[in-house]
Amino acid sequence: MGYEFTIMTADIDEKSIRKETPEELVTALAEAKAEAIMMKLESSNQLEEMSRSTLLITADTVVVYQGIIREKPTTAEEARQFIRDYSGGSAEVVGSILVTNLVTGCRKAGWESAEVYFLDIPDEVIDILIEEGITFNVAGGLMLEHPLILPLIDTVVGTADCVMGLSKTLTEKLIQEALVEATV
Predict the structure, then answer these.
(1) Burial 97-107 (b: 16+ CB within 10 A, else e)
(2) What angle do CA 110, 112, 116 make, to 5 degrees?
(3) pTM (2 decimals)?
(4) Judging by DSSP bridges, how do beta strands 107-118 and 153-157 pair with one another?
(5) Calpha distance 35→40 (Å, rounded)
(6) In angstroms, what is the C-alpha Rg of the chain?
(7) Can you tell me the distance from the alpha carbon of 127 to that of 118, in angstroms, rounded to the nearest whole number?
């Protein structure tokens, strides 16, 4: 996107935050991540040193399958079931983004969703994905851009970057809003 980023982890207990809808959940998780990172910055006096607009971007993503919210699978059995469920079917990805201007305190948030339709996913592919361990690091257990999964995607309704966890269009919109409000 042409921006220079510094990456920090929020180190929050995501499972302790529960909401009714996927949109509420991903928004609450992005907010909790922002609060945790701001506390880290504050404890190291980095917030006080900021004199120009510095933006904090936090995000979260979940997968919704048949109305059930799915986060990162925690066991091989759960990962296997997630992926088998998607085989020949579809899942919705819901992602939120929160942009916080650390100098002004201005916050802009939004969420997007996309649907992914899969071809049949062979058991051999599922076995390899679980063995690699990648399934335990991503919401819903699958990465759209994984070389074993990409050829098994039938259709994406929405944007691929939304599915991958950070909508470029929404991020850019929220960045501009956070910067414009800072100058008003």
Answers:
(1) bbbbbbeeebb
(2) 165
(3) 0.90
(4) antiparallel
(5) 9
(6) 18
(7) 17
Residue 56 β-bridge partners: 100
Instruction: Judge whether 75 and 89 are in contact, CB under 8 Å.
Output: no
Query: Is pLDDT at 35 greater than 60 in this prediction?
Result: yes
What type of residue is 1? M
The gap between the terminal CA atoms of the chain, to the nearest Å, is 25
Instruction: Please tell me whether residue 173 adopts helix, strand or coil conformation.
Output: helix
User: To 5 degrees, how large is the angle CA 61–CA 141–CA 162?
Assistant: 35
Q: Is the pLDDT of residue 171 over 70?
A: yes
Residue 92: per-residue pLDDT: 97
Q: Tell me the C-alpha distance between 119 and 157, whole Å.
A: 15
* pLDDT score for 43: 86
Distance separating alpha carbons of residues 141 and 60, to the nearest angstrom: 14
Q: Which amino acid is at 154?
A: D
In the chain, beta strands by DSSP E: 55-65, 68-70, 90-101, 107-118, 153-157
Identify the DSSP state of 163: H
Active site residues: 60
